[in-house]
Design goal:
The longest helix has 25 residues, at 23-47. The protein has helices at 5-11, 15-19, 23-47, 55-60, 94-100, 106-117, 122-130, 142-150, 156-168, 182-188, 196-206, 212-222, 237-243, 259-266. The protein contains 14 helices and no strands. The chain is mainly α. Bound molecules: fe (ii) ion (FE2) (2 copies). Residues 107, 111, 131-132, 221 line the site of one fe (ii) ion. One fe (ii) ion is lined by residues 107, 111, 131-132, 221.
Length: 272
């Protein structure tokens, strides 16, 4: 840390005052002065608005990684190597997937907890609980992938909400209490604008009678990132029991249109 000698001496009352101090007192004064300067520097930085990356900066990072950003979280490790996964039971249920493949699932559990507390419909609560689970498998277009994964088992409104929450995340709705998230400036770049198909989807949704179903997922999404919150799937037993059609053969073995997606989630280490 660089010290401005003049400012330091002035802070002690000038040269005359410094001359009267013994060596130890000077050393101590210097230490306090440096601590203060450091605190001020940290405070100044904290007060500044966060600098968000540009789209170009984010693109420049592509070649710095051994994986693509769109890979599902089951397929990459944040740090070090991936862990060995416990094999799934022969007839896996939604609970088994939550416990063994979507875990810790904090984000979706927090989101659904908020929906439950604010008295939203059971279709919306279920949509909040499931809305990002497919990120374990794949990330781009996760609204569409997620809806496809769950469509055979959930009410139509729930699948609709999952499919379109992805689009509505890009568009604020003050009346509904949804702002554009800072997180999106961070992950897409501050100068990002969504592709044409997302804009067209948004236009379609604005005039759709079910607009509020995916919109409410985004409203809960915003508040769903508290690292200290302790959440569990237990409060959703009843909603799942009433609205999730668990196949008796187990997810992945019921020949539904998305059975293969469940099998891929169950065995992500399979080479083919
Ligand atoms: Fe999402
Ligand atoms: Fe989310």
């Amino acid at each position: 840390m660089e010290i401005d000698r003049r400012a330091f001496i002035a802070s002690l009352g000038g040269t005359a005052a410094v001359c009267l101090m013994d060596h130890e007192a000077k050393a101590e004064a210097l230490e306090h002065y440096m601590e203060d300067q450091l605190d001020q520097a940290v405070e100044a930085r904290q007060g500044q608005p966060e600098r968000f990356p540009t789209v170009a900066e984010i693109e420049a990072e592509i070649e710095t990684r051994p994986f693509r950003r769109g890979a599902g979280s089951l397929f990459t490790a944040g740090r070090g190597n991936v862990a060995k996964l416990e094999p799934m039971p022969a007839r896996p249920t939604l609970h088994d997937f939550f416990r063994m493949r979507f875990a810790p699932a904090n984000h979706v559990l927090q989101s659904a907890t908020r929906a439950l507390k604010t008295g939203m419909s059971e279709e919306v609560i279920l949509a909040c609980l499931l809305h990002d689970c497919v990120l374990s498998l794949i990330k781009p277009d996760h609204g569409w992938w997620g809806a496809q994964l769950f469509e055979p088992y959930v009410p139509e409104k729930t699948a609709f909400a999952i499919r379109y929450h992805q689009t509505l995340r890009f568009y604020p709705d003050e009346q509904a209490g949804y702002e554009y998230p800072d997180q999106y400036y961070r992950i897409f770049g501050h100068d990002y604008s969504p592709p044409a198909y997302i804009e067209q989807t948004y236009k379609m949704l604005r005039n759709h009678k079910w607009y509020m179903e995916p919109r409410l997922v985004t409203v809960n999404d915003l508040y769903a990132f508290d690292p200290k919150a302790v959440v569990s799937i237990d409060p959703f037993e009843d909603v799942i029991g009433r609205h999730f059609k668990q196949p008796k053969e187990g997810l992945g073995f019921d020949n539904s249109p998305s059975a293969h997606m469940w099998r891929t989630l169950a065995r992500p280490d399979s080479p083919l």
